[in-house]
Amino acid sequence: MTSKPQKMPKVAKVKDKSPAELQITAEQLLREAKERELEIVPPPPRQKISDPEELQEYRLKKRKAFEDNIRKNRGNISNWIKYAKWEEEQQEIRRSRSVYERALDVDHRNITLWLKYAEMEMRNRQVNHARNVWDRAVTILPRANQFWYKFTYMEEMLKNIAGGRQIFERWMEWEPDEQAWLTYIKFELRYKELDRARTIYERFVYVHPEPKNWIKYAHFEENHGYIQSARRVYERAIQFYGDDHFDENLFIAFAKFEEGQKEHDRARAIYRYALDHMPKEKCLTLYNEYTRHEKKYGDKSSIDDVISSKRKFQYEEAVKVNPHDYDTWFDYVRMLEADGNVDLIRETYERAIACVPPIKEKRHWRRYIYLWIYYAVFEELSTKDMERARQVYQMCIRLIPHKIFTFAEIWLLYAKFEIRQKDLAAARKALGQALGMCPKHKLFRGYIDLEIKLREFDRCRKLYEKWAEFDPENCKMWIQFSTLEAMLNDDQRARGIYELAIAQPRLDMPEYLWKSYIDFEVEQEEWDNVRNLYERLLERTHHVKVWISYAKCEHSMPVEDNVVHARAVFQKANRVLRSCQEKEQRLMLLEAWKEFEEEFGDDASAGKVKQLMPRKVTRRRQVTTEDGSQARWEEYIDYIFPDDEAAKPSLLLLAKAKEWVKKQQEQSQEVPEVREEKDGYEESAVVDPNLDRDDSDVDVGSSSSESSSESEEEPQEKGIKGK
């Protein structure tokens, strides 16, 4: 049968939509509604039943209403409970029981229904019926803990201890949660049944194997004075969990138990055992408790052990995060070496050297290689295990990729180790292998030093020859080779090595080589060779320091007229450096010449040098940027030498200047002061032409009138330039 569609209710139409004269706000409506709620409503009249017939009629009416409600909604348990409760109020226990049974047929898994049913039986002192209800409830719903709690509580209130124990045993067969076991234990303790409680604890810790339950078991034994039993419980708990499932709370409780019994050594042993066997990330609280215990009961050494243990934990965490942090490995191993545990130190070294740098670049291996060195030194000096130290060196050498890079230090340390073991052949073999695989300057130097200490000079010569073949540009090598020959009093051989060295087309530091060669000849007092070397050197370079050194060397020679020879060198240098672009070098030469003349010459020679000194002027120039554009202006210092100014005019101008000077001399008998104005600067310049000549051409002791007549021309030429 099809249902008819529901019709929408008609909306009342408002004919007059104009606002009312009296406006009512929403606030007034709410206030009026609230006031009506506060009005006293009289209760319904109380019905008085005067005879059994009226009572039966009332009951029939109520039962019919309850039955109608149940019939309308059979699954609503509250209707059943209200019905049963009303029957109980009418003292109709059988009828109430019947209602509950009918309700259980509808929903036998409703916990509230079972509870109300059993409580009704208990209120009316129907003990057997209540037991029957509880028994049926725990059989149907064994996981509902409320039934078991109520059932055992009822039996205990009835002083039926044996019955309550049987109910607990039935409950424990289902292995309930922890609180149920603890309730059973408290039940037994209330009646002083310690053995039964201990038996329940034994079953409890295996059904719920958690550390806190073992700790509760141990506290139970301790609280009742069974100290040895409590200790055995802790020991069994540690054995039960094994090395893989340790819990720090269990160890802390065990240690505090021993601490409470004044067994501080036992507590310390427990802490150390736990710290050694548990993962470090799970021992934070344990470390703090251990530190507290040692500060309270330990001595200085034990406190140091705690601190070292904490540092060990920190190092372990650091290397776990970054295993290639070799500085942390160094600190870690150094701390362990202070403790002296050889096996642990070796294990840590093995873990550290296993962290090989992932990239074969020398900068990543520089810190790593020292782990091997420290490991070998530890085995040699601390454990005296020479064979193991040799194996460490050999493994390290095999690990390094010598074709890409090498470390000369490890080869030299290995060779020195073999020498300490009095195995010279092995040391030479190792160094020879190093030179064959990866020759380096440090390897040659170390091998040669070793042979020099052994006084094997022929081997040293051969090694120097190999070194010269490997790197002929190395000036230090040539100098050391020549020094060795000079030390052996083989001057000709040393001189030949120097000659071979300076004949090389390329050298890294030729100035040091030449200086060493010259110093060698000076020591041999071969002054002709010294002059020859300076002349050969000046053919290659005109550096001012070479000239100054040459002049000083000439002055230091034990020959006559050494001052004259030195002055000749200075004059030659001045002529050569006149064409040098770097005016600072010529200035340095003149300053050195001036100091020389002031110390070893006379006033006339010193005055001549002073006349050669330049004047310093400040000029401006425009800075050119990288792209070629002109940028800002900058000031710089320039030096103007007198002879440079005199050489600038051309020959024609020079001739005209001479004619003009003659005319001026005819007009006036004195030489006028000639001034120059150039680039905004006005300076006077008087030049002595004799300064360009050697001392052999200039008479230093002649009168000033002669020198002035000879040098008249030059300043007059300069004056014409200013014009």
From TrEMBL:
<keyword id="KW-0539">Nucleus</keyword>
<dbReference type="GO" id="GO:0000974">
    <property type="term" value="C:Prp19 complex"/>
</dbReference>
<dbReference type="GO" id="GO:0071011">
    <property type="term" value="C:precatalytic spliceosome"/>
</dbReference>
<dbReference type="GO" id="GO:0071007">
    <property type="term" value="C:U2-type catalytic step 2 spliceosome"/>
</dbReference>
<keyword id="KW-0677">Repeat</keyword>
<protein>
    <submittedName>
        <fullName>Putative crooked neck-like protein 1-like</fullName>
    </submittedName>
</protein>
<dbReference type="Pfam" id="PF23240">
    <property type="entry name" value="HAT_PRP39_N"/>
</dbReference>
<comment type="similarity">
    <text>Belongs to the crooked-neck family.</text>
</comment>
<dbReference type="GO" id="GO:0000245">
    <property type="term" value="P:spliceosomal complex assembly"/>
</dbReference>
<dbReference type="GO" id="GO:0016607">
    <property type="term" value="C:nuclear speck"/>
</dbReference>
<feature type="domain" description="Pre-mRNA-splicing factor Syf1/CRNKL1-like C-terminal HAT-repeats">
    <location>
        <begin position="78"/>
        <end position="360"/>
    </location>
</feature>
<comment type="function">
    <text>Involved in pre-mRNA splicing and cell cycle progression. Required for the spliceosome assembly and initiation of the DNA replication.</text>
</comment>
<feature type="region of interest" description="Disordered">
    <location>
        <begin position="664"/>
        <end position="723"/>
    </location>
</feature>
<dbReference type="InterPro" id="IPR045075">
    <property type="entry name" value="Syf1-like"/>
</dbReference>
<keyword id="KW-0747">Spliceosome</keyword>
<dbReference type="GO" id="GO:0071014">
    <property type="term" value="C:post-mRNA release spliceosomal complex"/>
</dbReference>
<dbReference type="InterPro" id="IPR055430">
    <property type="entry name" value="HAT_Syf1_CNRKL1_C"/>
</dbReference>
<keyword id="KW-0508">mRNA splicing</keyword>
<dbReference type="InterPro" id="IPR011990">
    <property type="entry name" value="TPR-like_helical_dom_sf"/>
</dbReference>
<keyword id="KW-0507">mRNA processing</keyword>
<dbReference type="Pfam" id="PF23231">
    <property type="entry name" value="HAT_Syf1_CNRKL1_C"/>
</dbReference>
<dbReference type="InterPro" id="IPR003107">
    <property type="entry name" value="HAT"/>
</dbReference>
